[in-house]
Amino acid sequence: MEPLTKLAICLVIFLPSFIYFIISVVSYEEANEDDNMHLIYREQTINKDLLSYIEYASSKMNQNILPSEAEGYALIRKQSKKSR
Asked: What is the value of pTM for the model shown?
């Protein structure tokens, strides 16, 4: 076989799989980036909820009234519903 024929056969066999590999790597990175953005948003929401609970608890402590655990969970649920 001539060298050009060998090259053409190699390109026909390997080029589609190489293109598929490149596309799958790029799409995986984009999907991974989307997952990371979702996790960052979720972490910010949780941090906001915890911060509001800490502020609420400290205001109660300043009044010498300790909030109950149920009040804290109720506040966190209320705050998370507002942020949605």
From this structure: 0.37
